[in-house]
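By convention, each integer encodes one residue's backbone shape. The lines below illustrate.
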Amino acid sequence: MYTDLPADELAAYTSTQTRPEDFTDFWSETLAQARSHPLDLQVTAEPTVLDAIDVYDVQFAGWNGEPVRAWLRVPHGAAGPLPCVVEYVGYGGGRGEAHENLLWAGAGFAHLYMDTRGQGASWSRGATPDGAGSGGPQVPGVMTRGILDPQTYYYRRLFTDAVRAVQAARELTVVDPDRVAVTGISQGGGVALAVAGLCPDLRGAVLRVPFLSDFPRALQITDAYPYREVCDFLAVHRTEADRAQQTLRYFDGVNFAAQATVPALFRAGLMDTITPPSTVYAAYNAYAGPKQITAWPFNGHEGGGPEDDLAAVRFLREMTAAG
């Protein structure tokens, strides 16, 4: 059922979120710190049962030089240069198994599927810990990790990994470095939105039911997890609400959208309680670059499913066309 604004109000909705005065400096300094470490790109062929797609185990240095894993999938025997789609994973998931997630390589792209630090134990496996000594993958629960300070918040590390993944993709011999795009669903869409705001030279971004936008509204209108994790934390740490909200301003998709100029395709489900459609429209209406959106009236967090797959492939084929 509908639990959010009517469709006509969504089209005009804007967030009350504000942008910190040092937002640009914060992210410039964060990424400069990451780039001070060698990328240390490692690519190893991965044996699989697949005949039409070649898979490689990739590792690169992300936040603070820490190793991040990814799968690279390409059409069998491809020598490049190919357009590349860098994809980010939904909440609780990891990069999964080598033989999964074959759409983009099957459509002729190089596909770099980045693992998600400290997650990868809820619905697909991960292989990247959240920092040395932090142990292996864990079930969801990262929304409040370090939330009382932007410097320590979990998504500072994850967004930095995601930007470094674009850099890693451009270093791959099979990839045309001038034809790189990003995509993701839910948390992955939110990460892709942040990257679109931080990497202006991308060819395109497909943002499907993107999570992590319009925190002021999301925390008030949905009782679903993962947003509920923040509410649970603040129900105990009652006096820390202002500090937490101040931190979230640095990671809100609305603020990344306001500086993103990459052509973008948004998708939303009007019955979505996990990523309420108004939060998607908040990012869409703030988005500075060329954009289009489809909202599915009878779908929830799954969005358009296979229809969204087709739209994504067609959009990024157009955006990454040679020439």
User: Anything to note?
Assistant: The chain has one domain: 7-319.
